[in-house]
Amino acid sequence: MRLQTLSPLSRRSLLSAAALALCLTSHLAQAAADWPSQTIKLVVGFPAGSSPDLTARALAEPLGKALGQTVIVENKVGAGGNIAADHVAKSTDGHTLGLMINGNMTIARILNPKVTYDPLKDLAPVSLIGTAPLLLAAPADAPGTSPAQWLAHARQSGNKLSYGSPGVGTVAHLGMELLKTQAGIDPVHVPYPGNPQIMNAMMGGQIQLALLPPAMALTQVRAGKLRAIGTTSAGRSTLAPDVASLAEVGVKNYQQEIWNAVAAPASMPPAVLNKLSAIVSEIVRSPDMRSHMFQQGWQVVGSSPEGLRNRIQADTKALGDIIVRQKIQIN
């Protein structure tokens, strides 16, 4: 077989292309090495003292030390965190990040077509910070002596029962709508301003069940004011080791979690994203941060951008299907 030889022109073109690729790679590497060159803003869509705010402030100091630049937390409150997410998505300074919750990075636009950013196109995943299951709670005097007996009562009661959530489109709302299908129950949705109001309503007899953050619910469970039915994790959660998962009490193929993550504008260079993700993941997995997050009711993850992207895609499909099937929208 005769081998073809490249003409001098072809060889020069090939060498030029290789040199250009090498130059570009070197340039991108240098850009990542030089980043950051100014103060970084970590934007949170919830007020000071909220769970996302506390996580952002715990992350800001060690992140600033690792990057050699000040990291300031900026609260842009409203629309369930979507105002802050929109600000991050449209930022062009190369130094604006966001600490966001599930909905901001997954179903925001499915729930409300008026949302002006596309979570899947306009945000770049950096790292999944922490996850937590929800805990299905009922009043302390709820019928039945076991979770299985309570579920049987709930099935028989149909729409005579009511459940609370922190609002339309929250994971507690969509998770309960999915649970209704999986467990064969049919409680009526009653939205509340927040979880404290939900617990007060349940202890006061206005509603009969709710999906709540474990740390918050267990305080009332231990005080004898609420009853734990099960967690929404696949198995026992380290956040509530004494509470069975709903799978253990007969609700198969059901798992829901709340989570928070760091995101950047989609325009941020991949080399910078990878650098940032590696540093954030290392900080999140440190003993101090792990302890802090656990006390706040979170299980630490510290994922790669790809790991967070996979989670976003999975949750968008699962929760998006519920939204479409139930025709749920926020106007």
How does this model look, in words?
By secondary structure, this protein is an alpha/beta fold. 46% of the residues lie in helices and 18% in strands. The strands form 2 sheets. A 6-stranded mixed beta sheet has the order 2-1-3-10-4-11, with helices on both faces. Strand 6, helix 8 and strand 7 form a beta-alpha-beta unit. The longest helix has 27 residues, at 8-34. It is elongated. The termini are far apart.
Sheet having the most strands: 6 strands, mixed
Low-pLDDT sequence parts: none
Number of domains: 2
SSE succession: HEHEHEHHHEEHEHEHEHEEHHEH
State the CATH superfamily name of the largest domain.
Answer: Bordetella uptake gene, domain 1
Strand content: 15-25%
User: What's the shape?
Assistant: elongated
Number of discrete helical segments: 13
- How many strand units? 11
Would you tell me the structural class of the helices and strands?
Answer: alpha/beta
What's the CATH class of the largest domain, please? Alpha Beta
**Strand arrangement, major sheet:** 2-1-3-10-4-11
Mean pLDDT rating: 91
CATH architecture of the largest domain: 3-Layer(aba) Sandwich
Q: Would you give the CATH topology of the largest domain?
A: D-Maltodextrin-Binding Protein, domain 2
> In angstroms, what separates the terminal alpha carbons?
70 Å
* Helix content class: 40-55%
